[in-house]
Amino acid sequence: MRRPPISRRTWLWTSTTALAAACARPQPTQLPDSGPESARVLHQRGAENLIALAELGSAVRWLHPSDEAQACEWEPMLLAGIRAIEAANSRVELAEGLRGLMGEVAPTVVVWRSVKLDQQAEDAALDEPACRDEDAVGEESGAVSSERARPPADKSHGRLGTGRSGPPARTTAGGASDRKRAEDAAKAEAEERDAAAEDAAKAEAEERDAAAEQAETAAQAEKTEEAEKAEKAETGDEGETGDEGETGDDDETGDEGETGDEGETGDEGETGDDEAPKPEPPKSEADASEREDRPPLSDALFAEGEDLTITQWHRRGYAEGLPSDPGCARRIQRRPQTKASCSPAKRKRDEPQPCSRCDGDSYRPLAPGAPALLELGRGISSLVPTALWTRNGHTLPESGELEPAPVFDERRAWDYDLRDRATRLLVVMRTWTGLRHFYPHAARVADARQRLIEAMCAVAEDDSPLTLHATLESMLAQFGDGNGEVLVESGKAARRWVPQVSLRWVEERVVVCGSAWDSIRPGDVVTAIDGVAIDELIATELVRTPAANASAGIERAVARLFDRRERGATVELSLVRAGESGEQDLISSAHADVRSDRAERMDPRPEAAIEQLADGLWYVDPTRTRRLGSVARRLRKAKGVIIDLRGQLADPRASLLAHFVGKPRTIATERVPAGPNDHAQLPLERAGTRSVDPDGPTVRCPVVVLADSRTRGRAELELLGFELIGAPIIGSTSAGDLGEVAQLWLPGGWQLRFTASELRREDGGELWGVGVAPSVPTEPTIAGIRANEDQLLAAALAQLD
Question: Is the pTM of this model over 0.85?
Fold first, then answer.
C-alpha cells in the first residue's frame, strides 16, 4: 500500500529538529559530582605544584614513547591531577602524587626529592598567595585582598605584565616619529635575547649532560652493589640462619623482639657484623625538607635480548593527530647500532605525508638507559626516558594490547566546562606547555614559569570567561607570537563591534585616518576614549596584543581601541583638531555598529584596488583583490607598477610575485621544532624552503612596493620576494612574524592559534621580530592625512619618475 506524501510543514519541522539536534553542543561531562568548582585564591604552594605537573605531564605526553602514554586520554588525567596535586602540602606528598599519576602511563619515569630545602622558610613562602593584587596592597600594611579586580564592563582588559615597553610618553605633542629608533632597539634587543638564550641553552645542556652522566654512573654503581649483595647472600656470608632471629655467631635471640631494645645488646658493634640492620622508621613530615637518594632506574631500561628494538618519537613541528596539523609525529623503531627504517607504507593519494627522512638532522638515535633530567621545582627532579626497549611491538615493561587514545578534537573539547576552576587551569596549562614545546621562539621568553603562575592566578581567582580570554591573549603577547590568537566562535575570534572610524599611530599620536562620521575628521588627534587617557588605554592594550616587534604591537593595539562587545555601544572621543586659529579641543561620539572583522579600511589610498594612475602606470592592491591572474593580464603592457602590500593578502594562496619572476626562486628557509634530543627538547631544525614558481603572463616593467607594520602573513613573504628581485620598498618595516600557523584545541571548545615554524632569509638571516626593512623609509604625517594624501604612494610615484 502506498503511503501518503509527507506535508511540507512536517518535512520542514522534522528537518529543522534533526539539524538542531545534530548541531547541539554536548553537555560537559568532565565535572565534579558537586558541580563546577568555584573561584578561589591560588597559593604559591599550589602554583608550584601545578608547574611540576605541567612540566612532567607535557614531557611524558609528547616525548615519552611508551604504549601506555599513547593509550592515555591526557586531558581527563591532567584535570584529575590538577584537582589532586594542587593541594599537596609537603614535597613528599607532591613527589608521591606525581609518581601515582604518571605510574600507569610512564612506569619507567623516576621522581624524587633531589635538593635539600629549608622546610620552615619554604612553608612561610608557600603559604602566601601566588600573585598579589597590587591595587589591594597598602603602602604600609601590605594587606592583600582575596578578590582580584575583574575586567571593566565595556572591555576585557588583561592584568598580566609582559615586560614589553609601553608607547612613547609623548602622545599629545608634535614631533618626528621615532619608529625607526624603536625598530633598531627592538632588533638589538632581539640579538641580545638570542645571544643570552644561546648561552643559557649551552650552559643548561652542559649541566644536563653532567647530570645525566652522574645519573648513569650512579645507576651502574647501584646495579653493581645489588649484584655483590646477591652474591654474598648466595654464598652464605651472612651466617647460617634459620630466620632473622636465629643467628649463628650472634647473641642467642629467638627473634628481634627478644633483644629488648638496642641498649640490651651492649652496643651496635656487639650485635655481630652479619646481623641485618633494623629498618629505618618512615620519614615524618619534618623530614620532607631532606633530599632523598635517586630511586634506581627500571630494569626495563637495561633489558637484553636479540629480539629487542628501540622505540622513540620523531617529531617535526606541531602534530597531535588531526589532519589540519602542519607538522608530523610518529614513533619509530630501530635496532641498536642501526638507523631507523623510514620507508613509508603504501598510502592513498590524499593521505598526509609521513614524517621526513629519519637520517636528517631532526632524528637523533636515543638510548633507553640515558633518560632526560627534568627539574620540576620545589627541589623535585625527574628522569624521563625518551627511548624505550621494545619486544614484539610492545614497549617494556609490557602492558598487553593497548589501543591509541582518540585525538583531542572539537568534540572532546566540548566535554569541559569553563565555569569550573580546574578546567580553566587546564586551559592555561595546555596553552603554556603547547607554546613551550612547539612555538619556535619560546626560548626568548624571560622567566616562563612566572608567566604561567600569573596566568593561573588570574583564572583561578576569577570565573569570568572574559578574564580567561584576556589571560590567554596576554600569554601570547608575553611569548611575542605575532600570529597568536584565541578563537572562541567556530574557529573565529571573539565577535567585536567598532564604529566606522580608522585609527593609526602617526607622529607618536593616535590619529583618525578615515571616518564615516561627519563630526570626526581625518587628521583629528585622539587624546582620550570614554574619559580614559589615550596613554593608559594603549598601555593596557599592549599587554594583551600579540606582536613580534614594537611597531606592529603598537599599530595593532591602536587598532583595537574601539573594540566593543555590544553592538551599538556609544564611544566618546576627546579630540584635538587643528584649524586656522590653532588647535581646539572637541568631544565627539560614534556608535559601534560594524563587526570588527568586516570594518572597511579607511585611509588615504586609492579607492579602487586596481587603478591606472597615469598612462601605463598602474596601482594594484592585493590586500583588496583576489583574482591576481587576471590582474597580471591587465599589466602586460604596463610601463610601471605600484604594488600596495599594507595589510594581509585577500587571497593567501595567490601570488603576484609569480608574474614578475622568470625562473623558480627560493625566498626563505623554514625551521621547525624537531626531535627530541637527549635532553627532552625540540630544537629548531631546517624543514624545507619557501619558493615561488613563474606564472603567466609574465610582467616585465619597473615595480615599486608599499609596506608598513601592517604587512604580515603571505604579504610579508611576497614583500621578501620583491626585495630579492631588487624592487624598491617604500614605507616602514613589516610585521616580522613569518611562520606556519597551527591551531590547538583547548578544553571548553576554544582554539589557540599560534606560530609553529620560523622562516629565515635564504642566507640564514633572521626575519622574526626584524621584518623586511624599506629601501626608501617613508612615514605618513598628520598634515598629509588631513590633506587626504597618501605619502607612501607619492614617494613611490617619485621613485618611478
Answer: no
